[in-house]
Amino acid sequence: MKNIAIITGATGEIGREFVSKILHYDIDEAWAVARNEQKLYELREELGEKVVPVHADLSDMSGIEMVSRLLDKQKPHVRFLVNNAGLARMASYKDFSLEEISRTIDVNCKAPVMLCRICIPYMQAGGNILNISSASAFQPNPYINLYASSKVFERSYSRALNVELKGTGITVTA
Q: How far apart are CA 174 and CA 152, in angstroms?
C-alpha cells in the first residue's frame, strides 16, 4: 500500500510550499489538488514525479467526488491531508454576489469537512490532518468578514474533530 499526502490549493504560494516540504517525508506520492491544470503540471515538472496532479475545483461537488473516486480506486494510506485551498476577498458585505458567497463557503468550509470525511477511512495512527485556518479566526474583521467567519468555522471544526479522533492516533490541527 502506498503512502500519500493530499494537499489542496497546491498551486498557490502556500500550497506549493506545502507540496515541496511534504516530499521530504516518507510518502510515495503527493497528490496536488488545484483548479489550474497547467500550474499543476508545472508543479510536477518543478518538484518531480512524486507529485501527482489532481485537477479538481473544490467549490463543486464533482471535484470532491473525483478525489473520493481516486481514493476508492487506489486505496492508499493517507499520511497527510492538508486542506489549504481557500478563497478570500476584501470587500463590504454588499459587494459580494450570492454566487461568490456560496463559492467561498463551499471552498473554505464544505470542502475541508468533506475531504476529512472521505480521507479518514484511509488514515491510520500517525496520520495528520492540517486545516489551514487564519489569525482572522480569532477576531471580527470588517471588509473581510466572509473569509474570517469561514476560518472560525474551520478552526472550530478542526478542534472538535481532533477530540472525536482521540484514541485513533490521527491528529487534526488548524
A: 10
